[in-house]
Amino acid sequence: MALRKIVLQGDEVLKKKCRPVTEFNERLHTLLDDMTDTLIDSGGVGLAAPQVGVLRRVCVVMNEDEEILELVNPEIIYTEGEQTGLEGCLSVPGKYGEVTRPNFVRVRAQDRDGNWFEAEDEGLTARCFCHEIEHLDGHLFVEHTDHLLTEEELEEYIRRQEEEEN
Amino acid sequence: MRRPEKPGARDTALEVLLQIDRANAWSDGSLKRTIAKNGLDSRDAALATRLAYGVIQNRLLLDYYIGVWCAQRPGHLEPLILNILRMGGYQILFMDKIPHHAAVSEAVEMTRRWGRSKAAGMVNAVLRKFVTNWLDMPPLPRDSEAGYLSIRYSHPKWLVERLLALLGREEAEAFLRLDNEIVPTTIQTNTLCTTPEALQKELHAASVAAEPHPWLPGCFTISGTGDLEKLDAFQKGHFMVQDAAAKLVAAVSGAKRGDRVLDMCAAPGGKSFAIAMAMEDKGDILSCDIHPHKLKLMESGAARLGIRSIRTALADGRENHAAWVEKADVVVADVPCSGLGIIRKKPDIRYKDPRELEKLPAVQRAILDNGATYLRPGGVLVYATCTVLPRENDGVVDAFLAAHPDFCREPFTLPQPLGRCDGSITLWPQRHGTDGFYICRLRKRAE
User: Fold this and answer.
1) Residue of chain B with shortest Cα separation from A154
2) Which residues contact A102 (CB under 8 A, 6 or more apart)?
3) Looking at per-residue confidence, does A94 or B393 come out higher?
4) Which of residues 66-125 of A touch B (CB under 8 A)?
5) How far is it, in rounded angstroms, from Cα B74 to Cα B81?
6) What pLDDT score was predicted for residue A161?
7) Would you call B1 and A46 a contact, using CB atoms and an 8 Å cutoff?
8) A51, A155, A161, A163: best to mutate for the B interface, most B CBs within 10 A
9) Distance of CA B384 to CAs B114, B199, B365, B421, Å?
10) Which of B35, B13, B30, B33 is nearest to B106 (CA)?
């Protein structure tokens, strides 16, 4: 297992547009393996290559069944509906903000050997597709929100949501 | 992406420690409330409890080391940062299963998460000192024995000095050490509905390890329960949780079938229940307490155990109820006390303000005086505390006897190895493996 260092907000690398992957070689496989290890270690649900300082169109997403999807050169090809909820980012530690995203997202991407496939999901994982693919064009979730929650507001938010669920 | 997370075990422990520091909460209540609020599962609840208790049990020691490596004195640090450092230090020094790097990175991450990013570097630096030195920590100051023991076992110096005077160096140290060790849960068989043998079989069948207590019949130490209150045997009232020392109160009282018993400060009810079992649930026990919500607790406890002989009443132990005068065969006064005998179960008791504790003997004496009036001539008055300080124990009894010539201490016999006791006994964790406890038997002269 190799953990990579997660780049934090403020680093120029997070603002750059990433280049497509053209060679599906050992280097890519190592990158994907390391990104999965780093994601699991960090407790997040998605990680994009620029977050570990690599400017290539690669990301990993953990769905709600805790399966890891490797997405190479991903594009969003279809969206439906809308959801608004709290979102955070491994590159922006401790901060959360309310972001509106599509509720259903279909993605077309290549696997680690270059084969094209489609993946689709809703809710949290749909949100995560959007969040990670945005990273590949140099954007962060904070651009979609005017207010980042403080620790106290976050606690209150979670409490309110749990009360609604019950 | 990261999704907003519920507070985890460490955040919960931190919340609890901050509440205790503000001196507006006791650890056990605060833990229960905060674990429920944050919705922790049983594994995280156990970790939060271990962390909070561990930090309380080692606060002075951890602060000493933090003071060695931190440019600021611990007392000058913001409580939030200080408690993050204490938790990190505790994990590094005392929790074998948590890798050091995880303890450090969790603490640093937590510092950021709680909005103190500027302090993250300092937290990292201090905890790295713990990691590099953990096998060879800086020596503790040895200028005085009490000072050294106070830091080593994290007990306030006044308490260490008191224990040294009472017990001598070796025993005092054993007492202090045991206060920081994990205590096995002790249960008592409900002899009204089952036998010790049947209970042990029932617990084994539920894969709970139940070891018979070394000297108290019907008593077991148990482990591996998961959630004890969810056990079938508990729900059916086949046992209750109670320390061996507390159970002995029933034996010392000598209450028997048909007696009328008044338990003056009865909540949460364990001693009343033990007495009901000794009386085979035949007789009349009036269990009083000053807190209305605790009466409900006792009533539901008695119902669970299938006890019918207990009634409850709201009463301040210091206030006299004319209707009860000279009615009881047995009066039990298990009075409010400093609790220094149960530090191993409630670790923050050690930090109680000693000036507040000085007010206790007057309250204890008032309850004892009042209890004496409820006793019929020839009856037995049992005085008990869960502390080991003589001024709350023999001190109160001696003063009481001086003012009540119609009472005297009466010898009693307990299971071996305790044997015959000359009117009173102080139980000690380091001698008897029980809570620290005092029980005295007083007989009111028959007319």
Assistant:
1) B4
2) A79, A80, A81, A82, A83, A126, A130
3) B393
4) 86-90, 93-94, 96, 124
5) 9
6) 64
7) yes
8) A155
9) 45, 29, 12, 14
10) B13
Q: Which of B1, B5, B114 sits opposite A128 (nearest CB)?
A: B1
Structural contact between residues A92 and B1, judged by C-beta atoms closer than 8 angstroms: no
Q: Which residues of A touch B117 (CB under 8 A)?
A: 94
Contacts (Cβ under 8 Å, ≥6 apart) of A94:
A151, B112, B113, B114, B115, B117
Query: For residue B260, what are the β-bridge partners?
Result: B284
Instruction: Show the tokens assigned to B208.
Output: 């709970």
Q: Write down the pLDDT at residue A165.
A: 54
Residues B2, A90: C-beta atoms closer than 8 Å: yes
Pairing assessment for the beta strands B310-314 and B284-289 based on DSSP bridges: parallel
Long-range contacts of A115-118 (CB under 8 A, 24+ apart): A118/A77
Helix residue ranges, H only, B95-183:
100-113, 120-133, 145-152, 157-179
Q: Which amino acid is at B117?
A: S
- The predicted structure's pLDDT at residue B145: 94
| Token pair of B300 as six digits | 């539901």
CA atoms in the 13 A half-sphere facing the CB of B253? 35
Task: Test B2 with A43 for CB contact under 8 angstroms.
Answer: yes
Q: Is A158 close to B4, i.e. CB distance below 8 A?
A: yes
pLDDT of residue B371: 96
Look at residue B333 in the predicted model and tell me its pLDDT. Answer: 96
Give pLDDT < 50 ranges for chain B: none
**Furthest C-alpha separation in chain B:** 83
Please state, in angstroms and rounded to a whole number, the distance separating the CA atoms of residues B352 and B350.
Answer: 6
Given this model, what pLDDT does residue A59 score?
97
Torsion of CA A16, A17, A20, A25, to 10 degrees: 10
Q: Return residues 60-119 of B near A (CB < 8 Å).
A: 109, 112-115, 117
Cα A89 to Cα A102, B175, B333, distances in angstroms: 18, 50, 59
User: What residues form DSSP beta bridges with B222?
Assistant: B185, B210
* Interface contact flag, B115 A150, Cβ < 8 Å: yes
pTM, to two decimals? 0.73
| Chain A residue numbers touching B2 (CB-CB < 8 A) | 42-45, 87-90
How does the average pLDDT of chain A come out, rounded? Answer: 89
Mind telling me how many Å the CA of B18 is from chain A's nearest CA? 15
| Structure tokens that stand for B137 in this block | 């920590």
State how beta strands B219-223 and A58-62 pair: unpaired
- Verify whether the Cβ–Cβ distance A89 to B114 is below 8 Å: no
Helices (H) and strands (E) in chain A, counts: 3, 8
